[in-house]
Specification:
two-stranded antiparallel ribbon; three-stranded antiparallel sheet; Wheat Germ Agglutinin (Isolectin 2), domain 1; about 50% helix; single chain; mainly alpha; 5 strands; Arc Repressor Mutant, subunit A; about 180 residues
Length: about 180
């Protein structure tokens, strides 16, 4: 095992050793582990999270894929009608499953403990950057309102980011106030 002397990216004092990929994306368990400080861990997570959260449905087909799927002799009008109906069905399906899936994902990310993932909630870095530039203490409700308004984030995402920062020692939560750590 190698000696832990500094962050693999910046050389600062490390806060721990982290899996680059979470276990669900590394079933064989042969993933890369890195020694990172809090800042570099957050930066890496902000780059990897959107990639890991993307699904095959998120990827739009290329023009060649669409052309290969078209039947010879079909009219453009009937294709457009069918595509519109499929899009409406997909939106309805996404509307039913989406919010519950998002809440579950936020709950998983906001949870902490020895076995927790090093993933950070959506908007975490923006939330911290915003709060670092504010006089402290600040009321939690006011902070959530300001951050969500300034960055267009959902209030639940800002709440999850604040909880994550507090659980990792970046902020202190005392009653309904946010303090610097």
């Amino acid at each position: 095992m190698r000696q832990v002397s500094g962050c693999d990216f910046c050389g600062d004092t490390p806060s721990g050793t982290f899996d680059v990929l979470p276990p669900e994306h590394d079933p064989e368990g042969k993933g890369k582990r890195m020694v990172l400080c809090d800042h570099c861990r957050d930066a890496l997570a902000s780059v990897l999270d959107p990639l890991l959260d993307a699904t095959s449905e998120d990827v739009e087909p290329s023009v060649a894929d669409v052309m290969d799927d078209a039947e010879p002799g079909s009219s453009a009008e009937s294709d457009a009608t069918a595509s519109a109906e499929e899009a409406e069905e997909a939106e309805k399906a996404d509307g039913e499953d989406g919010p519950a899936d998002e809440r579950a994902a936020e709950a998983r990310m906001a949870s902490t403990g020895a076995g927790s993932s090093s993933r950070v909630p959506k908007g975490y870095r923006k939330t911290l950057r915003f709060l670092e530039n504010r006089d402290m203490p600040v009321q939690r409700a006011d902070a959530v309102e300001m951050v969500s308004g300034a960055y267009g984030l959902e209030p639940e995402a800002v709440e999850a980011a604040i909880d994550h920062a507090a659980s990792h020692g970046r902020l202190k939560l005392l009653q309904d106030e946010i303090h610097r750590a």
